[in-house]
Amino acid sequence: MALRSWVLVIAHRRAIDERRRLGRRRRIAEVVPLTEDAAGSGDVEREVLGRLERERVLEAIDELTDDQRSVVLLHSVGGLALSQVARLVGKHPGAVKSLHRRGLAAVARHLRRSEEVPHRRAAGEA
Fold this sequence. Notes:
Arc Repressor Mutant, subunit A; globular; mainly alpha
C-alpha cells in the first residue's frame, strides 16, 4: 500500500472512531481543516469569497450520509481511485461509484438551494 493510501486509511478510521466516540454529527470542517489561505493572498475580498464558498461546500458535505461523505472525501478530496476507496470502506466498487455519484448530486443540490436563498431575500420573497 502506498504511503498516501496508508495515511488516508488511518485518517478515515480515526475520523470514524471520533464520530462514534462523540455519538453525534460533527461539522466536517472540524475533521478536514481549511489550510488554503493560511498565508493569505493580500486580496481580502477574494479571500473572504473563497472562504464563504468553501463553507458552503463543507456544509453540503456535512449533510451527506456517513458512507457518502467518506467516499466523496476519499475520492474527490483524497484523490484515491474508486477501486481503492472500495477496499478502504469495505464495499463493492459499484456501490462506491453509486455513493460517490449520489453524494456529488446531493452536494450540487445543496449548493443550488443555498444560491437561491440570497436571491429570494434580495427580491423580497423570503
